């Protein structure tokens, strides 16, 4: 592969990894342009949306080359974003050839996520902590901790890859509410609202919501609106799941 083609592939791959990992649009575009300039290809043009990357280069005596990649909206992977950012800084310092940079990016793209047991434990700790911060007692925090564990066990081992995003969030909201009801009736936790509020926190799209606002602030209105809409949809699905269980609980007068 010629160096020019390899540079093009490297820049494209960096943008795809960042966008798939939940980076804001301005970061994706700036990183791609920095890498291109560092390798002597400042004429590269980028067009980034929340779910797609368009990259083109050429002109004059050089033939044009373009690439369009669809990147589905996904969860945040801050470890990959940090790794690509660090690599881009090293490229600007002249520490990597295009071939070396491309190899590093391939390794970053295949970086494994945290072990499942760590994700489950983090969900439990987050739920318990927020249950306490929201005003719950120690018992409420313990109940929220158990609900958070159950939630991620459900996500990681039962429904991932089998349900749509909407169905996952509705069922997840319903599950943590049902779990909170059971635990409070068993005496572990006395404040149902605090237990439920803490347990649902791992499902809230905080990174997507923040990046949506940042994209709009950077005048990337289309991408920001898409991300905000996605975040609002997730919250609405959670509310629907929680509300359905609460409504049934109230109607049955348990």
From TrEMBL:
Keywords: Cell membrane, Membrane, Transmembrane, Transmembrane helix
Transmembrane segments: 141-159, 166-188, 228-252
Membrane topology: Multi-pass membrane protein
Entry keyword Cell membrane: yes
Keyword Transmembrane helix included in the entry's annotation: yes
Pfam families (UniProt xref): ThrE
Compartment(s) where it occurs, according to its Swiss-Prot or TrEMBL record: Cell membrane
Domain (Threonine/serine exporter-like N-terminal): residue spans on this chain: 11-247
Superkingdom field: Bacteria
Family: Belongs to the ThrE exporter (TC 2.A.79) family.
PANTHER family for the chain: SUCCINATE TRANSPORTER SUBUNIT YJJP-RELATED, UPF0442 PROTEIN YJJB-RELATED
Protein name, UniProt field: Threonine/serine exporter family protein
Species of the source: Allofournierella massiliensis
């Amino acid at each position: 592969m010629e160096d020019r083609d390899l540079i093009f592939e490297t820049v494209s791959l960096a943008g795809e990894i960042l966008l798939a990992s939940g980076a804001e649009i301005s970061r994706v575009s700036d990183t791609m342009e920095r890498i291109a300039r560092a390798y002597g290809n400042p004429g590269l043009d980028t067009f980034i949306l929340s779910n797609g990357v368009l990259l083109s280069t050429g002109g004059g005596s050089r033939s044009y080359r373009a690439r369009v990649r669809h990147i589905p909206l996904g969860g945040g992977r801050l470890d990959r974003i940090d790794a690509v950012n660090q690599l881009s800084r090293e490229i600007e310092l002249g520490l990597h050839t295009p071939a070396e940079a491309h190899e590093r990016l391939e390794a970053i793209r295949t970086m494994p996520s945290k072990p499942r047991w760590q994700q489950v434990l983090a969900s439990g700790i987050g739920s318990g902590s927020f249950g306490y911060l929201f005003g719950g007692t120690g018992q409420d925090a313990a109940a929220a901790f158990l609900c958070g564990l159950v939630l991620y066990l459900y996500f990681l081992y039962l429904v991932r890859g089998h349900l749509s995003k909407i169905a996952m969030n509705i069922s997840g909201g319903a599950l943590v509410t049902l779990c909170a009801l059971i635990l409070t009736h068993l005496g572990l936790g006395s404040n149902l609202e605090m237990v439920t509020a803490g347990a649902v926190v791992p499902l809230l799209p905080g990174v997507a919501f923040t990046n949506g606002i940042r994209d709009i602030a950077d005048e990337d209105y289309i991408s920001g609106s898409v991300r905000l809409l996605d975040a609002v949809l997730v919250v609405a699905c959670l509310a629907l799941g929680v509300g359905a269980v609460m409504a049934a609980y109230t109607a049955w007068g348990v």
